[in-house]
Amino acid sequence: MEERRTSRTPRQKYGEELRLRRTAAHLTQEELGNQVVCSPTLISHFEAGRRLPKPDDAQRIDRALETDGFFARWLEDLESKYTDHFAAVAELEQHATLIQQFALTLVPGVLQTDDYARALFRAYRPNHTADELDEAVVIRTKRRRILDGPAQPVVWTLLDEAVLRRRVGGPQVMAEQLRRIAGMAEAGRLRLHVLPYGVGAHALMQSLLTLMNFEDSAPAAYVEGFLTGNLMDDPALVSACHTAYALALSDALSQQESLALVRAAAEEHAHGQQ
């Protein structure tokens, strides 16, 4: 029987070439990481095609492997459409087996409808054009493809109640957005929990947080603010993020109570009651 071949992405080819050149140089991931000034976990992500090195890292890789600028030049052809602080996260979530996300004020990007995303972009781009908005929406909502498959990744979504109450894009846009989230939860595509206002202070009230687990490498955590983000793979920091997520989740409503609250909020928006 003919063996099925799976196509590799350009980033996976980049990573495979890096692994081959590192092996030929008789360096471990840890030894290469020491020369690049990064963790062996990050080298592992590079080689798996989950992340790309920054230009300075690529130059250090070339020096360590004596590849005469090969990896730095190739990197220029793999530039992401995402902002610098989010590009690596967009790649990682494509490979994650488990994503646990917390949203403080906005619906997480991977769950946003087109109209919800457009309203967000319009809010902070005062001189936008229709074409620019359309392009931004396409780039963001393309991330939803990771949810098309029936199995991976497993997705947990924890929402502060503020996400349900802030009317983004008008009542109908908001109602459609919340109905979509509820529908995905009811279909078993994501696990949904809400932290109600009545909880008061909770462990994640300072930041958006995304946790990602992978089949063959260490987990990562990502926090984000205005025009900035921080992707962490340091085990101690990632562990602290997991602890904070677990604490916040323990204060949340059950799945059924959360679904009921999201459905109720959608109907309130639809009927102009908020």
Automatic annotation (TrEMBL):
PROSITE patterns: HTH_CROC1. Residues 18-70 form the HTH cro/C1-type domain. Pfam families: DUF5753, HTH_31. One of its GO terms (molecular function) is DNA binding. InterPro entries: Cro/C1-type_HTH (IPR001387), DUF5753 (IPR043917), Lambda_DNA-bd_dom_sf (IPR010982). This is Transcriptional regulator. It comes from Streptomyces colonosanans.
